[in-house]
Amino acid sequence: MTTTQTERTKDELRELAEQAGRDLEDASPLEILAWAAETFGPRFCVTSSMEDAVVAHLASRAMPGVDVVFLDTGYHFPETLGTADAVGAVMDVNLITLTPVQSVAEQDAEYGPKLHDRDPDLCCALRKVKPLEQGLGSYDAWATGLRRDESPTRANTPVVGWDEKRQKVKIAPIARWTQDDVDAYVAEHGVLTNPLLDDGYPSIGCAPCTFRVAEGEDARSGRWAGRNKTECGLHG
Predict the structure, then answer these.
(1) The predicted structure's pLDDT at residue 7
(2) How far apart are CA 140 and CA 154, in angstroms?
């Protein structure tokens, strides 16, 4: 394994990320994750929304026992929580569940009920963005399942880039994959997926803000439908 990441400054990490983004653009997801495991060791983790466990499965092949971070916002579908439990039980990963500082009831008491309907950006900030920033504190690099074909806002996602907001290396090993690639990997390896994917939900977030999508519509059009909002703040 290379030198530990505590020996790297933020500038060194940024340079490393930018160089790797160029060098690994044409690499396979497994090669990208093997590089991450070798480069960062225990200071690398995977984040998963539990839409599927594709990146977690890939990472477990490159780094058995890898930390997989899941944000339990308090608003998830039961199917999403069930998928997370299954991933932790059957895959060679260390599932870490992050929760917001406030329970839903405590948030309702301070901000009023259904903050997600009145101010979804604030709700996402409290229940997703802040817990993730705290949870990533001991890591220098994190991997996500972002893909370029998911939406226009993700079309330029680098396979390895610099997360300026969190000052960390951000890895998107399946950025170049299509939905067909994901489906083929799931079929080949029997990867766990959220049952809602087969029930009209191609992109799954918190239950109050996630809706079924009509055939042919953008996969993320069911997220915050009717609002000028396409991201929760974790990725932009």
Answers:
(1) 73
(2) 22
CB 229 within 8 A of CB 128: no
Return d(Cα 168, Cα 13) in angstroms, integer.
Answer: 7
d(CA 226, CA 211): 11
Supply 90's token pair.
């059957």
Residue % of the chain over a pLDDT of 70: 89
The answer to whether 58 and 181 have CB atoms below 8 angstroms apart is: no
Mind telling me the catalytic residues?
232
Helices H / strands E in the chain, number of each: 9, 6
Compute the 3-state secondary structure of the chain and give helix, strand, coil in percent, each to the nearest 5.
Answer: 45, 15, 40
The residue type of 175 is A
Return the SS3 of 27: coil
The confidence band for 219, taking pLDDT boundaries of 50, 70 and 90, is low
Cβ-proximal residues to 162 (8 Å cutoff; 6+ apart), any chain: 13, 14, 17, 18, 168, 169, 170
